Amino acid sequence: MKRLKYLAEINPPLPRNRVPKPDDEVSFLPMERIGEEGSLDLSEVRPARDISKGYTAMIDGDLVIAKITPCFENGKGALCYGLHGGMGFGTTELIVLRAKSKSDSGYLYWLTRGYHFRNWGEAEMRGSAGQKRVTEEFVANYRSADLKPADQRRIAAYLDEATGKVDRLVALRRRQMELLREQRAALIQQAVTRGLNPRAPLKDSGIPWLGQVPEHWKLTRIKRESRMISKGTTPSTIGSEFVDTGVRFLKAENICDGAVSATPVFFITDETHRELFRSQLKSHDLLVVIAGATTGKSGVLPIDLTPANLNQAVSFIRFKTSNMSLFCNEWMATPCIQEFVRQTAVQSAQPNLSMQDLGNIPIVTMPDKELEDVLRAIHEIKERFDRLNSAYTRQLELLAEYRASLIHECVTGQRAVGK
């Protein structure tokens, strides 16, 4: 066994023959430029005089490791190739390793990718919570096998090829998951804008972005199908504050992925809830974000989150029927309605949708039985695609576990890598 400091120089200076002139442009590599799985963003270039002092130097072939939490735990590290002028400087949140004459930089990269190195390094971190750092002392004294250079190169080449196959499979699965999401959205949009009968006679809706709809459907507006449209108020406007327990208080952050989430958690007192009576919510109310970056996102309030109230960035629509609330939630999520909302919202410091504009959003209605069938079909579509998505997610988890085990077994001699 040999300590890492005998295999590589730790944060070495530039070689004497590689010192840049003040006006020479070199790569600048802050910690944020290191991506996952060894990727690097080398787009930033600066004059050497601006970064040559107080920064960590590196040359092509060096290994850089992010030493601050959580980047270190996430495995951020990379081999430096393609540096501008063959050299660069990074922030002090990086540790640079330069392979010595009998060491292979590729092997050092995989050694430091192994979960033994990362887990032990995480346990040895120093500093305050949230800003812990791996020390140079830990890196320098980390023990690894004293391998011949040829063995190091063979292990590195094997891992390059083997992890490359895994990475290509991961990329394929992720692309398949993207296609699943697109197909899921397309099928739901088809159901809410064209119905379930592909042979149904169609008519022009009179709305360019909507196109044709089934002939027997009625085109109306949200306000005509609802009993009430209102929005919430911030408790501080009436002199109240949030409390640890009480009535649930919902914000825009609670609305995501077409549903109302219990987190983040906020509460107001019963008294405040009574004072804010105009925004007291009921189950099956449709909540719609009307201010901020997520304007237009919606979700139906489930009964287990009531009683509840909400703030001024969220509006609620109380429809005449619960099925219409569920249908409008799917309607709001379609790309054509989301684009309509973006064009309608007032663009100032942030998007803002008035309750009047919300009520005037076009929507279709259909016979009750057909509406039930459409909602049932959408539920089945979601269930089917969610099962496929869960299966692919599990495959990605297994591939990540296999990849980590593969690296660990190779750099610790538990797996033969061939001659």
Properties at a glance:
419 residues; alpha+beta; Adenine-n6-DNA-methyltransferase TaqI, Chain A, domain 2; 4-stranded antiparallel sheet; 4-stranded mixed sheet; 36% helix
Structural class: alpha+beta
- CATH architecture label name of the domain at 218-365: Alpha-Beta Complex
How many β-strand runs?
25
Under CATH at level 1, the class of the domain at 218-365 stands as: Alpha Beta
Sum up the overall morphology in one term: elongated
Whole-angstrom Rg? 29 Å
Cα separation of the termini? 22 Å
CATH superfamily of the domain at 218-365: DNA methylase specificity domains
Low-confidence parts, pLDDT < 50 over ≥5 residues?
A: none
Question: How would you sum up this structure, described in words?
Answer:
The protein is an alpha+beta fold and 419 residues long. Among the domains are: 2-146, DNA methylase specificity domains (Adenine-n6-DNA-methyltransferase TaqI, Chain A, domain 2, Alpha-Beta Complex); 218-365, Adenine-n6-DNA-methyltransferase TaqI, Chain A, domain 2, CATH 3.90.220. 36% of the residues lie in helices and 21% in strands. The protein is elongated, with a radius of gyration of 29 Å.
